[in-house]
Amino acid sequence: MSVYTPVSRSELETFLNEYPVGALTDYAGISAGVENTNFFVTTTLGEFVLTLFEHHTPTELGYFLALMRHWADAGIPVARPIPNHSGQLLSQLKGKPAALVVRLNGQHIDEPTPAQCAELGTWLAHMHIAGQTFLQQRSPDRGHEWRVQTASRLLPRLDTENATLLQAEITFQQTIPFAQLPSGTVHADLFRDNVLFHDGQVSGILDVYFACYDSWLYDLAIVMNDWCCHADGSLDNARALACISAYQSVRPWEPLEQRYWLGLLRAATLRFWLSRLDATLNPRTGDMILQKDPAEFRNKLLHRIAAASVSVDARRLLCPLPVIRVQEACENLPAGVSITAICTDPGALHDIPAWARIHGHTVLDTRSEGREYTIVLQTGQAI
Ligand SMILES: Nc1ncnc2c1ncn2[C@@H]1O[C@H](COP(=O)(O)OP(=O)(O)OP(=O)(O)O)[C@@H](O)[C@H]1O
Ligand SMILES: N[C@@H](CCO)C(=O)O
Questions:
Q1: Is the distance from the beta carbon of residue 79 to the nearest atom of ligand 1 less than 6 Å?
Q2: 211: Cβ below 6 Å to ligand 1?
Q3: pLDDT tens, the chain, 383 aa long
Q4: What is the 3-state secondary structure (H, E, C) of 250-265?
Q5: Could you tell me which residue ranges the UPF0033 domain spans (predicted)?
Q6: Residue 2 alpha carbon to ligand 1 centre in Å
Q7: Run of H or E residues at 25
Q8: Which domains, from first to last, does the chain contain?
Q9: DSSP assignment letter at 185
Q10: How far apart are alpha carbons 101 and 40 in whole angstroms?
């Protein structure tokens, strides 16, 4: 992260006196990350990471530290928190809640291979399964409700193009039944900068501070959008397939997950577009603040939308064919695909939406321009 709260050497020495970690030899602020203040700490007995939590409550932190211990006990390579002399995992420094964890070996990977994406997909599925025996639950702090509220707060500050995109995406997101999707404890922020690799294996899963109870596949979508993309934001099929297959070899998807996968990929891009936009428009103060680019996720969202779009051009066909053409085009489509039907028959403005509603799809827009009629639908279930 960025260092929001500076810590002097003598303050750190006093803090470390409460831990069985020996005497301080060196420490340095970590510039990666955006949420908390982190330091690498070297003592006479080992290497550690000190985190000062910038906005979480002690209750939430109790959840995160207990989860780290739970996942570590289950063999997941997360950093194990160190108890102080009183047996507490959570302490205080500079008036902020603070914790000391073991520093893990390994390096971040900028350009993962399909094999590394598969390795990560496997670990993510194991984390989801291990999470089933973790009995505490925490609501998502960047979940659907947050996305809707944040969008409405930021919309007036966006230019027309971005505002139109954001508004349309929020409308689409309302069609996803988030509460019905198979859910459990998820990491919710498993980007490349939160994973360490050593000798081709995952050696560290870091930064569980967005972990919560949410849709498992949304967690995989977050991974996919960071690990399996080309520079332009489009998905790299080889990496995406490797990651999904490895995940499913441990935990196969349920039918509802198959159906809403495309929508969850979009939800996961929207989440990070919004959080980065928010951080840009409402910056926090501190030293070494790292600001991540919102446009990266706006572009990813555009690619996910385009990948989930079908256009039906029925302009040369006669009434009542537009509905049949839409039906044909939609055959076997999963939910979350947007269908734009263009026709010259004014009856299509009524017939296509009526057909769509019967089949559980959502009509996003109907408009007419001269003698051309456009209907935009969102599939809500396999047709
Ligand atoms: N236990 C650890 N072992 C090794 N390196 C670590 C450890 N914890 C953190 N780091 C390093 O510090 C960086 C920042 O940590 P972390 O991701 O937890 O910060 P954050 O501010 O919460 O970040 P984010 O922006 O990802 O939410 C990591 O990317 C990693 O390089
Ligand atoms: N991983 C996030 C930052 C922390 O939530 C991002 O890249 O925007």
A1: yes
A2: no
A3: 467 899 999 999 999 999 999 999 999 999 876 678 999 999 999 999 999 998 888 889 999 999 999 999 999 999 999 999 999 999 999 999 999 999 999 999 999 999 999 999 999 999 999 999 999 999 999 999 999 999 999 999 999 999 999 999 999 899 899 999 999 999 999 999 999 999 999 999 999 999 999 999 999 999 999 999 999 999 998 999 899 999 999 999 998 888 889 899 999 999 999 999 999 999 877 655 678 999 999 999 999 988 877 777 766 655 446 777 788 777 767 777 778 888 888 888 888 899 888 888 888 889 998 888 899 888 775 44
A4: HCCCCHHHHHHHHHHH
A5: 312-378
A6: 10
A7: strand 24-29
A8: 9-102 (3.30.200.20), 114-307 (3.90.1200.10), 309-378 (3.30.110.40)
A9: E
A10: 10
**The ligand 2 atom nearest the CA atom of 194:** 1
**300: Cβ below 6 Å to ligand 2?**
no
Q: Is 2 in the pocket of ligand 1 (CB under 6 A)?
A: no
ipTM score of complex: 0.90
Give one DSSP letter per residue of 340-371, joined into a string.
Answer: EEEES-TTHHHHHHHHHHHTT-EEEEEEEETT
Return the half-sphere exposure (C-beta side, CA atoms, 13 A cut-off) of residue 199: 1
The three-state DSSP-derived secondary structure of 91-136 is: EEECCEEEEEEECCCCECCCCCCHHHHHHHHHHHHHHHHHHCCCCC
Please report where in the chains the tokens 């996968």 appear, as a residue. 261
pTM higher than 0.95 for the full model? Answer: no
Distance in angstroms (rounded) separating the CA atoms of residues 276 and 294: 5
36: Cβ below 6 Å to ligand 1?
yes
Residue located nearest, by CA, to atom 6 of ligand 2: 272
For ligand 1, atom 19, the nearest C-alpha belongs to: 33
Which residue among 276, 297, 300, 301 is best mutated to probe the pocket of ligand 2, counting the most ligand atoms within 8 A of its Cβ?
A: 276
Omega before 320 cis (within 30°)? yes
- Residue with the smallest CA separation from ligand 2 atom 3 is 34
